Every structure is written in structure tokens, then in C-alpha cells.
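Quick sanity check, Peptidoglycan DD-metalloendopeptidase family protein:
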Amino acid sequence: MRSDHGLEQAGGTATMAFGRAIVPQPELGLVDRLRAAALQIDWVPDLGSRIGSLEWWRGAATCAALCATAIAIAPPIGRPLLGTMPSPLSGTDRDEARAQAIAPIAWGGDSGRHMAANDLVVPLAEAPERPIEDRTVTVGRGGGFGDMLQRAGLSERDAQDATALISSAVPLGDLKPGTQIPMTLGRRPNKTVARPLEALSVRARFDLELTLKRVGSGLTLTRQAIAIDNTPLRIQGPVGGSLYRSARAAGVPVKLVETYIKAIATKFAIGRVSSGDTYDLVIERQRAATGEQQLGNLLFAGLDHGDKKTQLVKWTDGTWYEASGQAERQGMFTMPVSMARVTSSFGMRFHPLLGFTRMHKGIDIGTPWGTPIHAPADGTIVYAGRSGGYGNFIKMAHGGNIVTCYGHLSRFATRSGQHVARGQVIGYSGSSGLSTGPHLHWEVIRNGVAVNPRGFSFSSIATLSGEQLRQFKAKVASLLAVRPGA
């Protein structure tokens, strides 16, 4: 059955689909089928993925073919390529090019335009001086202050006037070596005379600055007081791997670290200091309103070693006292005479005059007649006079139940009750009493028992009391109240 348009509607194959006629495609040829198949192939696959697959080998073959083709058609490497180069410039063109070029000075560059002097340039007979000149002079060791200023360029009169004004404010000896003195010199009428001093400034003391200025034909002095803060500096920190290095890293000067270690070593073995311990230092400090800072002596030395805490404070006598007000002094006696020659040692001996053996409680030191005898340590003369076989005799107490005795003297240089210092002359050797010749008999008695004076070391306990102890306690409290780093 066909419609009016000639299309079959039943009993056959429809040639119309959804209102559009289906046109049969012609059969492709071999070349077209190969071209279509080639378009379906990925000739440049990613060589980083699916390594070893058929697609990967196909891509590798493509890459090899392209490389071989590039090598085959490339020109020979050994044959140079011919090219053209411009001819070198000369004359005016070369000068213009060099004027615009930049060449390193290290390579001898002399590029750029240079203008030569013409007839309008008039040479000067002499170069004019600067109207003012700033100079700085450093205070040295030795030499006069005025001579130093003259060497810096001042006239003799200005140097004398400046020296007189500064010495009227502070002694010139108080100026520390290394102090910088900036000054300004003015214009001079000719080169045959020195420049006049216009201004000079010197830091005479940490709390005082002096300024000289020219007013008219003379110099005037101005004193400027500088406010000073005397709050001490407290530094605390862990010992770590090294006590010395930790303190230095915290900013403590070398000499103060050494002083601290020596003070602590009198109470605590340095070898027992561990990394977990804490050091504590309080140092004298002056801070000026101008920003400068000066560090002084070590005032407090502390070490926190677990349950053991060491706290030492330096008192006015130079001794390190514990916070309780006690101090242990240790030391050794020096020989009381120079060029000492021991003629009889300590111990049992045969007495040359009495003719029998008995205990020799000291040592005999052979000396020429009248040799000065020096105190081996600080002490007080308990007795100075005659004493039987000892002849002229001196007995001295040193504290800590330690007494020294000196026999056979020719004369005395001290009297009973006199306090003497270490090294002070207390008498002169001789041969008084039972003696065979000029010599010194020296005894050391500790706790009432004679001991060998040679190599004798001693220790004593010093304790503050009364008003000194009260002042000491107040100082300890003030030092401990200082905040670290403040």
C-alpha cells in the first residue's frame, strides 16, 4: 500500500524516518578507509604512562623517527655557518659610539665625554680653605693636656685657655685615656697662623660634660650635669653546659665572670656545678640619662644548686661574706725575712748551748744582724719585750686562735697593742738571749700547740656584729630585691 507521495506505509521497509529521508551512503575506497583508520590512532601518546603497552611503543617509534629525521636534514656540525658583520667604525662615528657606551673601569673603560679646559678657565693661585673644620682628639696616657691640643692644631694661647678652663672644673688627671674630644676650628686670616678654637666638648666625668665656646675674643665654659641611675644590674640564668660560657653569653664581662667563679669556689666545688643549677650575679651599674652605661664591681655572687643555695656578698673590707654575716678566710704565711735560709728545722734537736735534745718549737732562719722582719699576715702585737732565752721577743695574734712568735731580735719596730698589716716591719734580727749568732727564731702556735711554720696554711672565721651586721643585712636585702635584667 502506498501513500500519495509514493511511500510504502505497510507491508514493506519504511524509507522515511521521523519526517527525514534516509539516503544510503556510498561504499568507501581503500585509501579513504586507511586515512580514517590513521586518524583514529594517537601517534604521540604520553610516554610517561602505560610504559610497555602497544600505544607506548608506537609513541616511542614516532619519537625516534622524528629525531632521526631532524638529524638527517640538519647541516654538518663541523662546518661553520657563514654570516655578515658590520665594518668597524672610525672617525666621528666611533667617537659618538664610545661616548654612549658603558665599559667597566676594571677593564680600562674610558668611555664618556670629557670637556677640556678652554680659554675661559682661569687657574686658582691657591685653593680656598673651608670656613670651619671639625676635628677629634683622643686623650692618651702621659703628656700634657695643652700639648695634646696644640698637636691637634690649636694655637698656644687657645690651648692654654682651654686647659685652664677645663682644669677649673675637674682635675685633668681624672680624664680617662681614650676619651674623645670633638672640637670645631674656625677661619684663620692666613695659613701662617693656627685656626682659632670655636667650640670644644669633653666628657669630663660620667656625670659631667664640659663645653667650651668662643664668645667675642675669649672662651667660655659651660657645665652640664648628667643624671645618673645607680641601680645595680642583676643577671640570672641556667648554668647549662658551661658556667663560664653561660655567664658570658648573658653579657657578663670576662673579669666579673672570673671574680664570680673565684668567690663561689671558696664555698662550693666548681666541679660539682651541674647544668641544672642557676647562677645569680648583682653588678654595680651606672646608667646616664644620655644612654651610656658603665659596669663596676661584682656585689653579689649566688648559686642555686638544688637544695643547697650559696649567697655571698662583698663587704666594705673586700671580704666575701655569707648572707648570715660570716666569712671564712684562708691563706698562707709568708716568710718574715727575705732571702731566708733555714738553719734549724722544726722538731726534736740537740740544743747547741744546753747540750741535750729537746723539742724545737719553731725554725731558725740565719740572717745578717739588723735584717728587717715583716709580719707574715695581718695581726695585733700581743707582747713586745724581753722573754728569757728568747731575748728580745714579739708575740702576735692573727685571729682564729693563731699566734706567731719572733725571738732573738736586736730591736723592735712595734709596740704592744699595735695593729700591723701583712708585710709591715715589726722588728730587726739579732742575737739576744740564748743564741750562737745572728738569726731569727720563728714559731707558729695554733690552738695552743706549736706547728711547723714552713708551708703553714690557716683558715679563720670572721663574723660581723652590731651596727656592721645591721648594715650588712640591709645591703643583702637591697641586693636581693633587684629585679633580674631591670
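Posting the structure with no commentary besides this: Residues 133-225 form a domain with the Nuclear Transport Factor 2; Chain: A, fold (CATH 3.10.450.350).
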